[in-house]
Amino acid sequence: MSTTSVRAWTYTNGYPNTLKLSTTTVPTSQAVQKNHILVKIATCALNPVGIQMMNLPKWNLPVGSYRDEKGTVMDFASTVVSSGSDRFKAGDEAFGMSLMPFAPGGGALAEMAHFNLAATPVVKKPEGWSVEKAAAISLVWLTAKACIEAVAPFVEGTQSKRVAILGGSSSTGIYSTILAKRTGWKVVATSSAKNKEFILDDLKVDTHVDYTKDDVRQAVGAFNPDAVIGCVGGTECIALASSKRYITIVGDKTGRTMMGGPATYYDYMHPYYAAAQWVRWARG
């Protein structure tokens, strides 16, 4: 396959020390594979999950392809250069999310990328959208949609139809709130005081909790939510008396070098976290 070199941010292992501006290869326009698209990246969006993926313990294995440079960043807006699918043609503006940014040519933090459409949710960009807006929406919108769908059976089956959204001013928190309100649910959302007006006036939540001064568990618990969506980590609202479902997109812990959900506990570099998670699972 004929290829060309493009600039890209890559890493090997030991993030953040190995993250660097480097080069990667993508196919030439004539060599794009079937059901793939070659795109010129206009802009991309950074998300915490990018750090989580770069910190997956498997990248520390000193064997085979694990030592190779890997791309990073999932969300993108782009212009199609060449297409191996009838869905797109050269010149189309497209946006989406790479589910395999670490694959060769698969990272969005690059000049160009070669995306497998089977592993890349991607659609044409609406004419009225800026590339910045398009790049920023895919991951957080789909995450919010998945959260709402996950708690819906536990909320819709009640008369109160109440949900708590922890981190209401975060990207996923904003979209989760919008979807919940459109569904007709009542919402309590947490944020700092500086975002209170936005939470109440723009997002139209029913109750606001200031996590910087309020007792979050007590204040959220007083709302009697039927489910909780956690967008900021922590354990304050796990197992509230009224809650029948707890969803978190972050996990119990956050940090610059270890961030994300339950998978981060099963890390041979952090045996204490792994043991603690197994104990929690065993206890239900």
Automatic annotation (TrEMBL):
InterPro entries: GroES-like_sf, NAD(P)-bd_dom_sf, YIM1/Zinc_Alcohol_DH_Fams. One of its GO terms (cellular component) is mitochondrion. It comes from the Eukaryota. PANTHER family: ALCOHOL DEHYDROGENASE RELATED (PTHR11695), ENOYL REDUCTASE (ER) DOMAIN-CONTAINING PROTEIN (PTHR11695:SF647). This is Enoyl reductase (ER) domain-containing protein. It comes from Passalora fulva.
